[in-house]
Structures are given as C-alpha cells and as structure tokens.
TrEMBL record:
Record InterPro entries: ACMSD, Amidohydro-rel, Metal_Hydrolase
Gene Ontology molecular function: any one: hydrolase activity
UniProt keywords, alphabetically: Lyase
PANTHER family from the UniProt entry: 2-AMINO-3-CARBOXYLMUCONATE-6-SEMIALDEHYDE DECARBOXYLASE, ISO-OROTATE DECARBOXYLASE (EUROFUNG)
Record organism: Nocardia jinanensis
Organism taxonomic ancestry: Bacteria, Bacillati, Actinomycetota, Actinomycetes, Mycobacteriales
Record-given protein name: Amidohydrolase
Length: 374
C-alpha cells in the first residue's frame, strides 16, 4: 500500500528551557520555574513563584526512555520538524506547548500573564513563521479570566486559530462550567478559535512527581496512564452540561489524545441524566446533550482501534487522528504501520475523514495535502 497521508490533532514542541528567563524582566524572570538537582541525583528542589518544593526524579531507565522518544531534531527545531513529518506521512498538525505545563503552579497573575505572552510571541516567531502546516496553540492564563480574555483577543489578532486549555483551570480560578468564563467563550466563538483541551493537564501537586502520579503500587503505571484520559471527558461534559456550547453553537472543542469511543458513551449517559433527573437539571438546553456533544466536540486518538468503529458504527463523525509527536505514547517511527493497520479493509471515505477531513473542518486555513503526495 502507498503512503497514507494524515493530519494530526495532537503534537508537542519543546521550547528553550530559558525562554521565560530570557524574555521577561528580571523581577519576573527570577520567579519562573528553576530546578536544582541534589548531589544524590535522585531528588531535586524546584523553585517557582516564591515557592520551593522537593520532588523525586524519574528512574534512570525512565529518563533514558523519555530521551529516546525526544531524539527527533524537530522537537526543538521547526524547520527540521518538516522532514520528520514528511517521513511519517503527517501533513498539518496541532502543536501544544511544553513549558505551559507549569502554569498551575503559578500564583501571581502578573507573572503568569507575562509568561503566556512571552510563549505566544516566541511561538509566532519560531514555529508559525516556518510553515503554514503548523497550527500552534496560543496560551492564556487561567488564573484570571480577564487576563485570559485579553490574551485570547490579542492571539486572535495575531492569527492564532486554536488555544491550549488545561482540562481543569488554575486551582484558584472557577471551573469551566461556571458563568465567569462566558466572556472567554464569546471571544473564542467570534474569532473562530478552537478550544484545544489536552488530556492529563489537570492541576497537580508538582511535589508529588508531576502529572498523572495518582496511583502507586501494583498496576500503577497502567492506572496512571489510563487516568489521564478521564480529564478530557470531564472537560467535554462541563462544556455541554453547563450550556456553554449550547449558547455558543459555533464554538468548537478539540479533546486531544484521549481517544474517541468515549464520546458516544458520554452522550448516552448525559441524555439519561438529563431525562431522568429533568426536575433538577439547570440550565435547560435547547438541544439534547448528545447532539451538542456530537456536533461541537472533536476527539483525537493515536492507536485506538475502536476510534474507527466510533465513526463507522456509532454515528460519531468528529474523529481525528493524532500522532502525539514525539512522545513515547505516540506513533513517531511507526506512523505508517499504525495507519495501515487501523484502516486495513476500511472504506476510503472513513479513512479520509479521520486522517484529513475532520482536521480541515476545524482548520481550513491549512493548505491541503498535495495531490502528488497522495
């Protein structure tokens, strides 16, 4: 079989470690995350925004594995990245940040606002300017709604088409189902900006070892990896049940890396809750929750065989492939093998929708895959 070209609803870029220190005034730069390894090599002390905590480092075997997954030069070089994508058969891609994972540990609104602007300006200069195949997600402070609205307005003016949102906002802010976020949804809808939630981004106690460290002991590794998927489902649930998407029918939400088969189940569950508990339901929706979910929520996956079935047999059409470049959970190095396995015996209509059509529905500004490449 010839190469199957795809777009990707999920990928990542590693910014320079000192990006914030280099771009912020010293009084703020000194508050950005800084780690000091202890002599034993097993622990480190992290300083961020006037706080310090000690955390255990991953084992040497785990570090080596992670480093292997980050070997592609394109993880830090947007020009070299194009060669990686061409080799894998990936054309356009949504790109999420890495430094932004620290956002939930900040407590000073001015500092977080400045860091988000610095990251956005850098991304425009170093990634967006390189290729129109890249859909770089803007970053906003979720510590303060007004700051988030201001940054999203600026980002729209700069041409950003998506904004990265953690599956739960900053610990000091209202959750996504609260009315305080209404101005943010309005700006996103009017600007045509996709809300891109990435799984595994709930605020965590960084001292516990980082995102996903929920379980320890037997089965911990598998349970922690599985646990990360649920946060995306909760974000989608909040956006539907709160009426945010019903009030903003042109707003589109992407849940990246969390699979797709959960969407039909969640729709069924929400319909049942809405029907069986109608006396207590607030707000009342103008459309049933499953219809809202199916029409406004898009979901990306990488290896899940059931995601194709969600499209073919469960009526859910907003299924999108994502390579998760270059993470160890992703398909880098075997994207073509993965795609050929997923779409063996599957119709061209289904394959083209999942690999390209769904992506272009959200990001029509990305150039089409060249005809001579297909």
């Amino acid at each position: 079989m010839s190469k199957i070209w795809t777009n990707s609803g999920d990928s990542h870029f590693l910014e320079p470690d000192d990006l914030w220190q280099q771009r912020l005034p010293k009084r703020l730069a000194d508050l950005t995350p800084r780690a000091e390894k202890e002599p034993d090599g097993e622990w480190e002390t992290v300083h961020v925004d006037g706080q310090s905590f000690r955390r255990k480092l991953p084992s040497s075997a785990a570090v080596q594995f992670v480093e292997e997954s980050h070997k592609p030069k394109g993880v830090r070089d947007a020009r070299a990245r194009l060669a990686d994508l061409d080799k894998e058969g990936v054309w356009g891609e949504v790109i999420f940040p890495s430094l932004g994972m620290w956002a939930s540990t900040f407590r000073t609104p001015e500092l977080l606002k400045a860091c988000m602007r610095a990251s956005n300006e850098w991304a425009l200069e170093e990634i967006t300017a390189v290729s129109d195949r890249y859909v770089v997600t803007a970053q906003v402070s979720t510590l303060d709604v007004n700051d988030a609205v201001e940054e999203l307005t600026w980002a729209a003016e700069q041409g950003f088409k998506a904004v990265f949102l953690p599956t739960t906002p900053h610990p000091s802010a209202d959750d996504w189902h609260r009315s305080s976020w209404e101005p943010f949804w309005t700006v996103a809808e009017e600007a045509g900006i996709v809300l891109a939630f990435h799984i595994g981004t709930d605020p965590v106690d960084m001292a516990s070892g980082g995102a996903g460290q929920v379980y320890r002991g037997p089965g911990g590794a598998v349970m922690n990896y599985t646990e990360t998927t649920f946060s995306g489902q909760r974000a989608a649930m909040k956006m539907v049940a709160s009426g945010a998407l019903d009030r903003h029918p042109n707003l589109r939400v992407l849940i990246s890396e969390g699979g797709a088969t959960w969407v039909p189940f969640l729709g069924d569950r929400m319909i049942e809750g809405y029907r069986q508990h109608h006396m207590a339901v607030r707000p009342k929706l103008s459309r049933d929750p499953k219809e809202i979910l199916f029409s406004q929520i898009y979901a990306s996956f990488q290896h899940d065989e059931t995601a194709v079935a969600a499209y073919d047999h469960m009526g859910y059409k907003n299924v999108m492939f994502g390579s998760d470049y270059p993470h160890m959970e992703g398909t880098f190095g075997h994207t073509q093998d993965t795609l050929k396995g997923l779409f063996d015996g599957i119709s061209d209509e289904t394959r083209l929708r999942i690999t390209q059509g769904t992506f272009y529905e959200l990001f029509p500004h990305v150039p089409p895959v060249p005809a001579d490449a297909q």
